[in-house]
Each structure stands twice: as structure tokens, then as C-alpha cells.
Amino acid sequence: MLRILFTRRWLTALAAAALFAVASYYLGVWQWGRHETKVARNALLDAHYRAAPEPIDDVLGGTTALRADQDWTRVTITGSYAGNPQLLVRNRVRGSATGYEVLAPFRLTAGRVLVVDRGWVALSDRGAAALPDVPPVPAGVVTVVGWLRPGEASDGHRMPAGQLATLDLAGAAAQWGGAAVAGAYLNLQTESLPDGGAAGPRPLTLDPPDRDLGPHQAYAYQWWLFMVAGFGLVILGVRREWRETDPDCVPRPKKVRIWDEEDE
Length: 264
Hints:
Helix content is 33%, strand content 23%.
């Protein structure tokens, strides 16, 4: 059988199997890396999502971007919303429905503004061209609690006034007259008055963060198992050719089945 294996045909097949094994190994490593990224994301959520809220000034300073290890940090701040109009971020999904997320500017110290994502509103029942009714921001002093998130990149689309295509902090700042926007936005959990009372109606809360790890771990194991598949096919092919061409290889007698005997 080794004589057949070391022919040009099967050496080429063996080389192809080796290349496939190398590719399968690195594809498995890639899928494992995606799995590890989601595991790290969930660990960050476990550490931050239900933690006691921290004062925002202890977490977010200036207009610098939120660090990756600060994502989903739960914070609190007391102050008031600025007088700028609320903005609508288009094509945002809650459950299985598409609508808008509602952004409002919240005054911080030193003239900065924090973008607050107050929640989600459904599409207008007056048609696609009409904007939905949005609950106004609370007047006066209010305490907000929520999670800090990094902004999204702009997709470059020009939008009508009062709307954004993505949760682009720079785009929001431009529509609010060039306000000095903080380097993160707040995913609102609660709004409350100084006496602890409710601050009034607000958009629907957003869906909780996705914690699904996906199939990446299983895909990694599958790719690593595929590493031996090419070699197995080569061995089967060589063995079959050996059985067909080697005169010393005596084929096994055909097994007689009961129904074959009845047919005779």
C-alpha cells in the first residue's frame, strides 16, 4: 500500500490534505477567538450591569472616549436636561419591532453635555413619513441612572433635522449647535425626581444586552476535527486502489443474504 501512497497522484492529494489541515486549524483558532471575545464581554457585563451606580464624574472625564473596560458601567447623575430638542435614531429594533431610539442632552459640569438614550418609540401609526409622538424630558432637577456605552460610527448618510442614522455622538453634537458632548452616551435605566418620585412618562426601555455566546465554540471544535478529514480520505482512496490493483490482495467473499438464497 505504501508503494501506491508514494505515487505522484497520492502525494499531491496528501499535500492538499496537509494544506486543508493547516487551514482548518487557523479557522478553528479564529472561531475560538470570537468565542473568547463574547466570554470576555459577558464577564464585563457581570461585573458592571447590576453593580451599584457610581457618580459619573468618577468614570467619565472630559470628552475622551469611553475605555473598553468601562463599557456598561452603571452610573448616576443629578442635574437637568438641556433645552435642545430630542433626536431620533432611525431603524432601531426592540424585540422584533423597528422604531426609533430617543436621544436627549443632559447638562454636565464644565459646560459638557451627556447624550442620554431615553429609550425606544415605535413607528408612527400615521404612516412612514410621519414621526412618532415622543414623551418630553422631565423639567427641572432629575436623577438619572443608567449604563455608559461608547458611541457608534457615522455611516455618512445625510439625515433630516432631528434624526440620526446611527448613535453618532458627533452627529448629535452638530444638531445641538456644536455642544461639547461627553465621550460616551448613557443607556437610561431610570429617571426620578429629588423626592424619589417618578419623573413622568418616558420611551420604552431598551432590550437588555445580548449575552448569547453563539455557535463559535462548536465551530472551532468542528474545524479542528476537520483537520484529520483530508488525511482520512487519502487513506481510504489509497486502500481502495490497493485492493483493486494488488494481486496479492484477496477480496473477501461476498456475504450471502437469506433473501438471495430464497431467490435461487
